[in-house]
Amino acid sequence: MALAYLSSSSSSDSSTDEEIEFLGNMNQYFNKPRRPYLLSIRIDHLFKWDEHDFFARFRLSKNTFKIVLEMVQQRVTTVTQRNRAVTAEQQLLLTLRFYASDSFLINVGELFGIHYSTASNIIKKMNIALASLRPRFINMPSNANEISDLQTRFHLKAKFPRCIGAIDCTHVKISSPGGDNAENYRNRKNFFSINVQTISDDQLMIRDIVARWPGSSHDSTIFFNSSIYRRLEANEFGNGLIVGDGGYAVKNYLLTPLLNPLTRAENLYQESQIRTRNVVERSYGVWKRRFPVLSLGIRLDLSKVEAIIVATAVLHNIAILQKEKIPVTTNEIQEQINLVNSVNNNVTNDNIRNNANDRTRKNLINRHFGEMC
């Protein structure tokens, strides 16, 4: 009996000790001093940097920055009583820095004294605001005078007649989107991307853009499912035509290189077509040098990527209109640009030998380039 009592007493004491220890640990946890709330200093970047350093960090001059800010200010300004609300100016600067960097939100946020989750929300809102300027800055010629002006400018470049644009596709690097369809975004170079179709003019401006197709998509598939294809089919641009590479099937409004030029006129056509088409390839180089995030990789949810691509295309056009210089880039960034721009190299359309739609190209060679011999 005494033995049982002692055993019971020992067990009770042990349980009490455990309870005391547990309560002590909980008391320490709940009474743990809170981390002090630190206010990060927000730098006035417009004031801090001279013109050269500002351009190097944000890829636009101060003057062009102010022009863009005026266009988006009302869309992103939030009416609030908070003392530390992020201004429209800070939001645009943060977004430009994101476009100009490796896209790690924590790095961009720290530069502006902002938590990365807040930075993410700001960039999302600013992407939409900038992309909404698309109808104003990304458009094909809308009347006979604009069509004629473009044709004249292209003809002065390489003697190619009737041209209103050069079409091609380029890849924008992204993180794996995950899910069942992730492999659709893996391209021929084995990284994940969006295959972006654009039409460029002689000044390297983007006149049309499609930015929603996964990296494994063929250029011609994107074209045949685009609104610009339907507009060209409907003869919306009169006698205007566009030029493309061998990844497209020749059409009466889309002229591609010859597979094997033989005559003097055919060789003249080939040279002129290549020089004219070169503007779209050059536009990709300038666009991605200005905004390296397009080549280094967009590390955000797939739903945000299209707006980023369109927003940077808008800014690319604004920069050209403002006669901004082309940013200097590092060897690392240039290597990444070369990589993403090489994905579509040497892709030939299966219908390249199909001459059913070759009437315009043949007439151009015989009449226009034949007369130049």
UniProtKB/TrEMBL annotation:
Its cofactor is a divalent metal cation. Pfam families: DDE_Tnp_4. This is Putative nuclease HARBI1. Transposase-derived protein that may have nuclease activity. Does not have transposase activity. Signal peptide: none annotated. PANTHER family: DDE TNP4 DOMAIN-CONTAINING PROTEIN-RELATED, PTHR22930. GO terms for molecular function: hydrolase activity; metal ion binding; nuclease activity. InterPro entries: HARBI1-like, HARBI1_animal, HARBI1_dom. It comes from Macrosiphum euphorbiae. The keyword Transport does not apply. Residues 167-317 form the DDE Tnp4 domain. It comes from the Eukaryota. Keywords: Cytoplasm, Hydrolase, Metal-binding, Nuclease, Nucleus. It is found in: Cytoplasm; Nucleus. Belongs to the HARBI1 family. Transmembrane segments: none annotated. One of its GO terms (cellular component) is nucleus.
